[in-house]
Amino acid sequence: MSTHSDRTTRYADRLWEAVLRRAQHTAAEVVADALRDGLDAESVLLEVIGAVQARVGREWAANRLSVAQEHAATAINDRVIGIVAPTGAAPVEGGGPGRVTVACVDGEWHAFPARLLAEVLRLRGFDVDYLGAQVPSPHLITHLHRTGPDAVALSSSLAVRLPTAHATISACQAAGVPVIVGGAAFGADGRYARLLGADAWAPDARSAADTLASGLPTPEHPNSQPLDDLPHLADQEFTLVSRKAPALAASVVHRLAERLPEVGDYDDAQRERTAEDVRHIVDFLGVALYTGDPGIFTDFLDWTASILAARSVPARVLAPALDLLGEQLRDFPRAAALVRSASAGRSTPGPSAAGDPPSPAADPPRDRTGEPA
Amino acid sequence: MSVVRASASEPTPTTDTPRDAGGAAALTVSPSGLVLEARQSAAALLPQLRAGEPLAQVVPWLAPAHDAACGRAEAPGPVCDVVDGRAVDARPVRHGDGSITWWLIDVTVVRSLRDELRLEQARASFLAEASAALLGSLNVLRCIEISADLAASRLADAALVIAPETRGRCQVASAVTGTRTARTVLRRIDTEQLPGLAEALQGFPPVPSRWIDPALAPAWLAPDGFGEIGSVVVTPLPGHGVPAGALVLLRRAGSGPFSEGEETTAREFATRAGLAMSAARMFADQASITDTLMRELLPPTLQHLHGVEFAGGYRPSQDHERVGGDFYDVHPAVEGSGGTLAVLGDVCGKGLEAAVFTGKIRSALQALLPLAEDHPRLLRLLNDALITDAHARFVTMVLASVTRRGADIRLRLTCAGHPPPLIIRADGRVEEAATHGTLIGALPSIESTTFTTALAPGETCLLYTDGITEAQGGPLGRDMFGEDRLRRVAAECAGMPAEAVVERVQMVAAQWAGRNSHDDMAVMAVTAPHTHHLAAVDGRGPGRFTA
């Protein structure tokens, strides 16, 4: 007799084969079979479809999937959710566990985890408004005023969205609605959720649904300002560095070409990718300044090095780029110190050569634009 | 020093300066409890006081403190008591012979001022907290619940907020002090049962808050398990033009009635709650009007149709808007339409006004659908209609007539002043559709050429507006996205499902623009499905904005 996890793994393997071949019909059959086989809908959502999506991310990070394969797989996976989703089961008027708005932070395109949560909540009888990817704050807040949900579930996968997430959390709380956050952006232990004053954090869809079912109290500090949570913002380094980000990146790229002859010989596409990498470094530096946590910056550098290594791109520009960036930041003591210490940690060949890539489970894959797959 | 004696039978004078002005009084007491010496002013404060009498007889309230002080080695501490309605502070000083001099200070006025200050501070902080909580929400139900919670937290043992009737029912939120958050229920209530309620709910005529005989209170008023009601007060919530409802405060039997100060606080709270609720109601009305008017202007959710994948994505130039000058539609085939007609276009201008104009164009195209077989003719008819309309704006668009031929899709494309669509071949080649034409609504006569092609399974025709290609930004913040970059992105999309192509293009362009201002951006993909069409599930794209 096979255990529950044997069965979910078996269906996840079959679904993986199907999405890889872009066989939508087969993918739909696998999910329908799993349900007929008696697997509960929540397990099919999370341990079959969700597991396959996580695998898509891991395979992309390891460069075993192309962008097109990864998008096709995600699209098919997204479609088969519709088979599991409850149909026509109207939420109980007044008697249900409550109304929840599920949305991704503005700029966050990685909607899959949020969609899974929305479906899990629907299965558990919640009245769910799923707003999807990259919801601009004004829409979200208007929606809250219009519908008055019991809670907002906010998803973000990439730490670079934390400042935006913070503004969104505060705006929801000011509207009197408590916020539960989830996604890799908030840290594997939810540390940034606490830092940014979220009312709750959940590591996965199931515990998010449990927390929401027990009810969130109305926000304790409905009118907090960013400085209340993060007093170090008073030095304005985040504000100035993020405003100057394009100019900082441009200057680093320009001087990289002077310093490394091979960069001077890059073609347009290579130059653009280098510019993107440098810009991401500056953006993540900004988030480290915002949160006051240098780990965000060094984690990003480690991750970049591992992604470049998986694609056989030498990570040689990272160290000189950090040096050049440090030179630009003389007027910003906190930023300069961050760059100095990060740079000191990788003066010898980076983690790309040393091996030890970050654990794939903890790090959602992102494509070259810095987006999660 | 004059003597004004206050006793329990007489009302305590609130402004009684003489004895305070006299400052401190004093009496010296031996260790055995005999009064050795009393200063005259002490006699005024304590009229029974005589030197030589036992303290326990003349100042009984002080005796225990004195005995305790004499029994201990350490310095004795001060004692407070209320004597004949006056608050008295007694501060001891021990002498070398073991006797103690008690300095008596009348602190009645100081105390009452301090109490008043504390009350006033509490009141101000409550009202400030209430304002902040109420200002935050524009949701009517939430305002009702917040009001009930706040009132129950400070003003009474339980509070009900009753909103004006709609269709014979009232929203009622009731909160009991110390319990969980109030929840609103919709109930049918007879407003006449509770005196003052009908007027308060109508918002007219103005009525003061009033006391109700608890015996008259209808049964539904008391929350479950509340117990016997001791006092009830009904306060109208002023709505400034719109009725906002009523606040009902309840106290349990035995917990005393509302004081004048508490009633004032309740009234001031009611003013704030009423304002917040009427603002929320006006917002809800306006938002519902906007929604109704906007419904026709929002880009449609595209479905798979007759074995062809259609997907569309839209991002208005302004984050706070949901519509703009770009539009797309997919019209299922009708007699004479020459297949499914997909349209994507761009009206000159942005924002709501441009959106209203896209509505006109979309209706006109819908009406012209039976003539869609002949693209140039359809465009000419549209041009004629716009040229005679004084309020019309220019519009550019692409028409795509789509028919299924086995596994392939036949495509006829005609541009009118619009960037030509890109054809993404299965092998990653990207071709530009060779069609061009005059924009619509500017010139009396127009020309256009139609391009015909076929899509094999996995191939996509990508229609887009110039908001994509003209996006300014990039990693260094100053480059245009441009057509070459779009073609490179399109090439990566070879073999993807339609919604994935749309999402990919939208994502890359949005990230390119970053925080820079940008024009409306619209994208539509028409894709020949790979093999099987997934009929069992709906074909909505992943994570598109649907609010």
Provide a brief overview of the structure.
Chain A: It comes from Pseudonocardia ammonioxydans. The complex is a heterodimer of chains A (373) and B (547). With 373 residues, chain A is of the alpha/beta class.
Describe the structure.
- The complex is a heterodimer of chains A (373) and B (547).
- By secondary structure, chain A is of the alpha/beta class.
- Chain A folds into three domains: 4-84, Orthogonal Bundle (Methyltransferase, Methionine Synthase (B12-binding Domains), Chain A, domain 1), CATH 1.10.1240; 99-229, Rossmann fold (3-Layer(aba) Sandwich); 232-354, Globin-like (Orthogonal Bundle).
- Chain A has 18 helices and five strands.
- Chain A has helices spanning 4-20, 24-36, 41-61, 67-84, 112-123, 137-147, 162-174, 191-195, 205-214, 226-229, 237-243, 245-259, 261-264, 268-291, 294-310, 318-328, 333-344, 351-354, and strands spanning 99-104, 127-132, 151-155, 179-182, 200-201.
- Chain A has a five-stranded parallel β-sheet, with helices on both faces.
- In chain A, helix 1 (4-20) packs antiparallel against helix 2 (24-36).
- Residues 348-373 of chain A have low confidence and may be disordered.
- With 547 residues, chain B is α+β, with helices and mostly antiparallel strands.
- Chain B folds into three domains: 18-106, 2-Layer Sandwich (Beta-Lactamase), CATH 3.30.450.20; 112-292, Beta-Lactamase; 309-527, 4-Layer Sandwich (Phosphatase 2c, domain 1).
- In chain B, 31% of the residues lie in helices and 24% in strands.
- Chain B contains 13 helices and 23 strands.
- The longest helix of chain B has 36 residues, at 260-295.
- Chain B starts with 17 loop residues before the first helix and ends in a 20-residue tail after the last strand.
- The model of chain B is unreliable at 1-22 and 532-547 (pLDDT under 50).
- The chains are: A alpha/beta (373), B alpha+beta (547).
